[in-house]
Amino acid sequence: MDLQLGDKTAFITGSSKGIGEAIAMALAREGAHVVVHGRDDVEAQRVVSAILAVGGRAHAVLGDLTQDEAVERLIAEAEDRVGAISILVNNAGGSGPKSDWETTAAAGWASTYDRNVLAAVRVSTRLLPGMRQAGWGRVINISSGAATMPPATGPDYSAAKAAMNALTASMAKAVAAEGITVNAISPGTIKSAKLENGFRTVAAARGIASEDAPWEEIQRGVLKLFAHVPVGRVGELAELADAAAFLASPLAGYVTGINLHVDGGFLSIP
Fold first, then answer.
1. CATH topology of domain 9-189+236-262
2. Is 157 designated active site?
3. Tens of pLDDT along 119-150?
4. Catalytic annotation, pick one of 15, 21, 74, 157
């Protein structure tokens, strides 16, 4: 299927690794001109090189999204390189040190909110005027299943992602008549190097399988200890990235204001 992204430009925050990198690669494969963002130049350039190696188009910009001046500078740099940005993926954020209700100070909550919610607000409000002028745009906010099913730990992160969902719904209504869609994606248990290493360690410690056993054996034995995922496996980064590519495309023009759970059926909402 042609997602019709050949004439689009995409800015993906936090795309020098992990989910952001996978989305940057997916959009580039579909023909979009991609701006890779991160804080580490070596990692950002690695992703750019990977995109260029498969015939894609990409540039890298660096900056701290919790600083207004840095956001203005890096977006100006991005626009100078690729022109007006038509697709924004707010992926940067994440959780900080392990937090709980007893030890996490208000400053920790504020920091998590800034990295996730306010970072997305800074970038979105800077890019929305251009999308409005063009009469076309896509904003995708990477949320989390923790926003709708928060665990007892990490309350600051769950609350920040819940705010991202509310932000998504509000922004979607504000710009829907202007050719701009705004959606969220909530990943479930997605495979990463960190997750795989953790699963292998648990498998060996509990006698489920040897630490060097095939991944299928590891995940089959360990996943059920953490979550009941109806499809019975961990998700792949490519599956999450493909969902983002669709939402970023012209084909998804009538899809806005949703929170798409890419979680193997873990959170089923009727």
1. Rossmann fold (3.40.50)
2. yes
3. 999 999 999 999 999 999 999 999 999 999 99
4. 157
